[in-house]
Amino acid sequence: MSATVFSRRALHATTRRLAAVNPSAYKKTPLALSRLPAPLAIATGQQIQIRHAPVLAGPGTRVVSQLRHLTNSIPAAKGHQIAEICEEKLTFNSNRQAASSTVSQTQGQEILAAQRRSRPVSPHLTIYRPQVTWYLSALNRITGCILSGSIYVFGAAYLAAPLFGWHLESASLAASFATLPILAKVGLKAFFAFPFTFHSFNGLRHLAWDTGRTLTNKQVIQTGWSVVGLSVVTALGLTFL
């Protein structure tokens, strides 16, 4: 009888000591301390089973041992041995060890580059099917730059011609053009003919848009191909004129 009383007192002392060290663990853990088996059963090695619901341990509390099916694994014990067994089976860890490592600047740049490769980006234009409106919009700007740039360059050269002794009169230009080979004549005329015709017809198309007409997708595509066809035909006519 005295051994049983001493065993109960040892178990209660161990439980109070663990609760004082980490009280939060006992509050969060659904282990009912009141249902712990009698120390006499542990001492005699009888079959013991403690049931409790599984829980997700928080960041500061982790259940190391769950005290399930404590059968035949605990030898007969008395006195302070029971206290040691209970303390071993009711161990709670409230500290998390943080692992740290030193990263060089080169490794940091590599990690950052790998993270940036995984970030979402805008889709590339190659995922879209090409449309005639894309090319006509670009051609309108390119042909405008060719025509306006040529006029500006020739105008500046014509103004500076008296200072440098250049002959840029109409008669001189016609005579110089006549001396060029046939392929050079055709290429030079085509280089200026197509930008002139395309920019002119496409300008009329833009003027029609300003009036609020031909603005549907179907009409925009139809007028675009019409401008391309008229520009090519008239450019060929001017080239071989």
TrEMBL record:
Q: Which domain of life is it from?
A: Eukaryota
Q: Where in the cell is it found?
A: Mitochondrion inner membrane
Which terms under GO biological process does the entry name? Answer: mitochondrial electron transport, succinate to ubiquinone; tricarboxylic acid cycle
Per its UniProt record, what Gene3D superfamilies does this chain match?
Fumarate reductase/succinate dehydrogenase, transmembrane subunit
Matches recorded under InterPro entries: SQR/QFR_C/D, Succ_DH_cyt_bsu_CS, Succ_DH_cytb556, SuccDH_FuR_B_TM-su
- Give the residue spans that cross the bilayer: 138-161, 173-198, 219-240
Q: Which UniProt keywords apply?
A: Heme, Iron, Membrane, Metal-binding, Mitochondrion, Mitochondrion inner membrane, Transit peptide, Transmembrane, Transmembrane helix, Ubiquinone
State the annotated membrane topology for this chain: Multi-pass membrane protein
Q: One short Pfam family name for this protein?
A: Sdh_cyt
GO molecular function of the protein, one example?
A: metal ion binding
A GO cellular-component term linked to this record: mitochondrial inner membrane
Entry's NCBIfam families? succ_dehyd_cytB
UniProt family annotation: Belongs to the cytochrome b560 family.
Please name the PANTHER family in this protein's record: SUCCINATE DEHYDROGENASE CYTOCHROME B560 SUBUNIT, SUCCINATE DEHYDROGENASE CYTOCHROME B560 SUBUNIT, MITOCHONDRIAL
Protein name as it appears in the record = Succinate dehydrogenase (Ubiquinone) cytochrome b560 subunit
Organism, scientific name: Exophiala aquamarina CBS 119918
